[in-house]
Amino acid sequence: MASLEQKLHNINEIIKQSSVIGDGIPARYRLEPKIDPHDESKPFRQKIFGERDNNKPHKKILVVGETGTGKTTLINTMINYMLGVQREDKVWFEITDEQQSLQTSDESVHSQTSSITVYGFYLQESPIHLTIIDTPGYGDTRDIENDKEIAIGLLNLSRCDECIHEIHTVCLVIKATENRLSDRQQYVFDAVQSLFGRDIAENIVLLLTHSSGRTPKNALTAVKFAKVKCAVNEQNQPVYFLFDNCQSDAADEDDEILERSWNLSFRGMTDFFKFFENIKPRTLQMTRDVLQQRNQLEANISNLRSRVQVIELKQKELKQTQEALEKNKKDVEDNKDFVFEVEVQYKERVDIDPKMWRLTKKAMCCTFCKENCHYPGCWWADDLSWCSVMKNNHCTVCTNKCHYSKHVKEAKIYVTKTKPKKATYEELKKKYDVKIGDSMSVAKKLEEELRESEKDKMKLVIEAFHCVETLEKIALNTDSLLTLVHIDFLIEKLKEINEPEKAETLENIKKRAGEKHGALGYIIRCVRSKKK
Predict the structure, then answer these.
(1) What would the CATH number be for the domain defined by 33-283?
(2) Alpha-carbon distance 293 to 289, whole Å?
(3) pLDDT tens digit string along 190-209?
């Protein structure tokens, strides 16, 4: 009886620290955790309930999944389980704030990058302390930039000195009613697995929501077909736990059904907590490396496309100059000056178009190379040395691999433009410092300049290829669709620079991932839809 009285006392004390959000049965309360003010130095929101006891075991779990799978209810179920709430208590506590996901495009950059929420639940009566890392749902608005934000947020979270450096369990939340693997579902599974290093597979478990309690054959078939890598049991089957999502529903004539729902979910939660009771945590080092490589690959490809454009414009200028020399061959031989016109390129900094990149409000640019080093995709890190394209305080993307101090992060990007320009033969000779009447030297100098540009292009293409190679070695998802999006472009450029073996390596990756082409089509459709 004392135990029951103590439990009721604990619940009443927690109610005093909560606000009422529903007065039915069960009565719903929102816990009032300590909330860190929006701090630009942190890439996440943090909510803490209770006081941390460093002598208690501290478990850390990461929750990921598609929008609509019931992640929010599941997190609240974990909290109620730890509080020891039972159905006859007729109360339900919530720690999540669903309103935080209803952000508008006019909010600050930090509010966008803070979409990862870290819940610290330090209940004194509990034998363990729990940290839950809640990520936004995938596939929310048919905008894959929203989903890329999750990867960026997790990368920055893992890099922050005061943040999470190891994980006990990754919870992949899936509807138990999932009966087929659509292009979108394939994409979601792929995107989730693309977050992690391959060393974390044994710590990934499936949390199946909206369950009736039966074996979720269809959902497990979808998981198997998608080749989701996760922990397996003695029968080599995925480790999964079943939950229903009706715990907070008001009691009515279906009281018996609601009781079964409650029992199912809390039995699933009991088994889940037993699973990671003795599980060995995994450092996020390899996961951090995977996220870093993917980020650098995207930045390299974006930069490569811009520099290929510059090279092609340089080729056009060279051709126009050669044609002018040929047309005025007599004047060249007589060393007479003449005027000709060419299209010259120049760089201009322009404002980022908010219609094109709703989330990308700033870009990391090199003021020395006049290049966009991280765009799109640069959300967080006011300290430029922390940008994911920086390594040892130097940029891994711009032409001269400049120190971060030569970079700026602003709502502007460099755009290459052209304009007609009148030039003279005398100016051309001075530019290339050639001898009088030596027209061949002018053309030769132009050819040499073009070859140097080609060398830069080759170097960047090879760097991008090595990014893919590294991901193949360390990523949990080696055939990520996020890589395949760029692979055709890389294959084409590798062939252009006469690297057939490297091109063949990428062709083999593409063939091996052939069954994902439907999901790749989903990404392409999202991109096209966004550009309209």
Answers:
(1) 3.40.50.300
(2) 6
(3) 888 888 888 889 999 999 99
